[in-house]
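wait is this the right file?? whatever heres the structure
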């Protein structure tokens, strides 16, 4: 009796819940900062050192801006630009970007496209349209993402958030050097003016403005070289 009674008691005990294996969290390092702060170079170097994927979120806004300009849209046409952005399937591979089979790696780097990117980026509809595209880059073993709102909006659970700045003079000089090296004519005072305008727009917009979120490590790279900045970021990440 006792045996069967105890079996009966056993049979009414709740079964332990079936817990699915926890999906491993893919680590993200978010590096945000103003234009020409060096975040792209730093993010790529950190990604290479860790064997992580790399997301240049500015390139995604630039792809959308180029597509909008080529479709004859004005960057102010929020809904039309967002509708177009939702259809875009850019392919990122080995440092090149293709859209509809065409290589647009160089085309998206032109200054008018960068300025249009900053203008379309003020629209919440456009940001929403590009949101999932950016989140899709979060793949094992990890991701280093650079932009303006990586730590605040797109990857708020990032393991490490870095806010990288540099003086406007240092940034204008860096951008000038980059463009000249690519054979693109550039004037340093025009660049400095555009950079200030773009900073103001990126920081003052209502939707996902460029801000250092709470918990972000702030780093001014004006007087540091690339290796020093990369080592600082890797040190923070490894220290957990
Ligand atoms: O980083 P970049 O200069 O390539 O970016 C071009 C523009 O895209 C930038 O002026 C603002 C916008 N952008 C954004 O709003 N949010 C991001 N995460 C990345 C870029």
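ok assuming it is, sequence goes like this
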């Amino acid at each position: 009796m006792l045996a069967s009674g105890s079996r009966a008691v056993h049979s009414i005990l709740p079964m332990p819940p079936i817990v699915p294996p926890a999906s491993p969290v893919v680590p993200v390092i978010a590096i945000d900062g103003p234009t020409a702060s060096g975040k792209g170079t730093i993010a790529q170097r950190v990604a290479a050192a860790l064997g992580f994927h790399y997301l240049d979120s500015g390139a995604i806004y630039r792809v959308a801006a180029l597509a909008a300009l080529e479709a004859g849209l004005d960057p102010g046409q929020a809904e039309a630009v967002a509708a177009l952005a939702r259809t875009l399937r850019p392919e990122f591979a080995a440092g090149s970007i293709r859209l509809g089979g065409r290589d647009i790696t160089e085309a998206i780097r032109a200054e008018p496209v960068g300025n249009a990117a900053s203008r379309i980026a003020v629209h919440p509809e456009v940001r929403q349209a590009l949101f999932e595209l950016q989140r899709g880059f979060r793949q094992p073993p990890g991701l280093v993402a650079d932009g303006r709102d990586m730590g605040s909006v797109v990857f708020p659970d990032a393991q490490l958030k870095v806010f990288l700045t540099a003086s406007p003079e240092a940034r204008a000089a860096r951008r000038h050097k980059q463009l000249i090296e690519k054979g693109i004519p550039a004037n340093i005072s025009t660049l400095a003016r555009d950079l200030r305008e773009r900073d103001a727009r990126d920081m003052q917009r209502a939707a996902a403005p460029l801000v250092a979120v709470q918990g972000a490590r702030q780093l001014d790279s004006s007087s540091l070289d690339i290796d020093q900045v990369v080592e600082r970021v890797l040190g923070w990440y490894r220290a957990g």
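Residues 35, 57-58, 61-62, 114, 117-118, 121, 147-149, 198, 202 surround 2'-deoxycytidine-5'-monophosphate (CB under 6 Å). so i think its the right one actually
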